[in-house]
Design a protein that fits this description.
By secondary structure, the chain is mostly beta strands. About 10% of the residues lie in helices and about 50% in strands. Strands 1, 2, 3, 4, 5, 6, 7, 8, 9, 10 and 11 form an 11-stranded mixed sheet that branches. The longest helix has 16 residues.
């Protein structure tokens, strides 16, 4: 009985972790967000893989937020700052990895609070490719913290 329950749980996890695609050269994997409160901006991360020609992520939108912006982190004079950017390169045959502590999507004006285990739709807009809609999984805090560099 325990084996059946674990098997069902694993199958459910795989179905939520499956890559999203618009049927073209771009696929999106590992889409996740930190616990989101309606009174605070949220952040989301994902990996865009590109098996086609050069493209750019130029925007994103979600029915769960009033607006979504593309951001990056800049280290200047020992201080880390976030800055909005107009687009991110998605190189031919490569990937754009949005990760905690690096490039990410900021979600402003969350319409409801979301807790670990919830999900919401987000549509990525590209310069050339068709939009790709993905389910963003709200992940545990430990999974959304920047990875520390080893010394």
């Amino acid at each position: 009985m325990l084996r059946l329950a674990l098997g069902a749980a694993f199958a459910a996890f795989l179905s939520t972790a499956a890559p999203a695609s618009a049927g073209g050269a771009l696929t999106v994997e590992n889409a996740r967000a930190r616990v989101l409160l309606p009174s605070r901006p949220g952040a989301a991360w994902l990996t865009i893989r590109n098996s086609g020609g050069d493209d750019r992520l130029v925007g994103a939108e979600s029915p769960a937020a009033e607006r979504v912006e593309i951001h990056t982190h800049i280290h200047k004079d020992g201080v880390m700052m976030m800055r909005k950017v107009e687009s991110l390169a998605v190189p031919a045959g490569g990937e754009a990895a949005l990760e905690p502590g690096g490039d990410h999507l900021m979600l402003f004006g969350m319409k409801t609070g979301l807790k670990t285990g919830d999900s919401f739709a987000l549509t990525l807009v590209f310069e050339k490719a068709a939009p790709v809609t993905v389910d963003i999984r709200v992940a545990p805090l430990a999974e959304t913290m920047p990875k520390r560099k080893r010394r």
